[in-house]
UniProtKB/TrEMBL annotation:
This is Peptide/nickel transport system permease protein. The keyword Nuclease does not apply. The keyword Secreted does not apply. It is found in: Cell membrane.
Length: 326
């Protein structure tokens, strides 16, 4: 009976832990939203002047400020914006005079596939390369992995993008040098336009994850459970991929969650290098045009993506390591 009660308690522990994490996520998003709004409110510049021009009459500027709610107290404006975010009304862009939600939805059709492809490529490169490097320390694959990791960490992703444009797109013509035809042009055409930007984003992430994978595999190779598996007749290859690699994925997943914010920041530069109409380009254009309502909504959306993915990574731990389900 006591054993059954303990088992039931452990089973209830994981959902309760995730519920606490989710509550912390919501509280963090609320704090970040207030911080973003406060920073945008402190930025010099009058949105009404941006929309009407500096030559507009004072009474016209005052009427527009009243229409936009800019003459309201700070806290009231923040609560109004927060209520709009919760109900899906993000306001209208000062520059484009269109709903911000429509702008973000349009640009997400580029940024989300780009980020997803970059994450897939970084994992597809780093995990096999790190495992093979750890399987033969100081061997040829290990030397290649070390060289790749050093170059990938040292070179910025936008510079990698420029090299890919010059060395691949313009030289061989296999991929477009920039622009996005849209998904209506066909899945392959749209995917083709995202390959080089995704590689530019993936290489620095893959470099970091390669080092983490190699270190994790080397640390686990000498553990007792691996020696026990070898003593029972498991081949070195089977022990590596069946026992070592699944346990080595925990630090890899942890680092991947930490690198999500770096990946999101990299999209701003890479999308501008490849002239992709994504969220990064939207944020850059809105900032240069002082379209603060767009900037604050995009910043909040990026923060929500990073926090949401880190929550997903935290939940993934229990899938990778059954011990954490207790």
């Amino acid at each position: 009976m006591a054993q059954a009660a303990g088992l039931s308690k452990r089973r209830k522990g994981a959902p309760a832990r995730l519920a606490r994490r989710f509550a912390f996520l919501l509280a963090s998003l609320l704090a970040v939203s207030f911080l973003i709004f406060a920073v945008m409110a402190a930025v010099p510049g009058d949105p009404a002047e941006i929309m009407l021009g500096t030559s507009a009459a004072p009474d016209t500027l005052a009427a527009l400020r009243h229409q936009l709610g800019l003459d309201q107290p700070f806290l009231l404006r923040y609560l109004d914006w927060l209520f709009g975010v919760l109900t899906g009304d993000l306001g209208n862009s000062y520059t484009y005079s269109t709903p911000v939600g429509a702008l973000i939805a349009e640009r997400l059709a580029v940024t989300l596939p780009l980020a997803g492809l970059a994450i897939f490529l970084s994992l597809a490169i780093s995990v096999p390369l790190g495992v093979l490097a750890a399987a033969d320390p100081n061997g040829p694959v290990d030397l290649v992995a070390s060289f790749f990791a050093q170059i990938g960490i040292a070179v910025p992703n936008f510079w990698i993008g420029l090299l890919l444009i010059l060395g691949v797109a313009l030289t061989f013509g296999w991929f477009p040098a920039g622009g996005f035809p849209g998904w209506e042009a066909g899945f392959l055409a749209a995917l083709n336009a995202l390959v080089l930007p995704a590689i530019a984003l993936a290489i620095p992430q893959a470099a970091v994850l390669t080092r983490v994978t190699r270190t994790a595999v080397l640390e686990l190779t000498g553990e007792d459970f691996v020696r026990t598996a070898r003593a029972k007749g498991a081949t070195p290859s089977y022990a590596l991929w069946r026992h070592v690699v699944p346990n080595a994925l925990i630090p890899v997943v942890t680092m991947l969650g930490l690198q999500i914010s770096v990946l999101i920041a990299g999209t701003v530069l890479v999308e501008n290098v490849f002239a992709l109409p994504g969220m990064g380009t939207l944020a850059y254009q809105a900032l240069s045009q002082r379209d603060l309502i767009v900037v604050q909504n995009v910043a909040l959306f990026f923060a929500a993506i990073v926090m949401g993915l880190n929550f997903a990574v935290d939940a993934l731990y229990a899938v990778i390591d059954p011990r954490l389900r207790r």
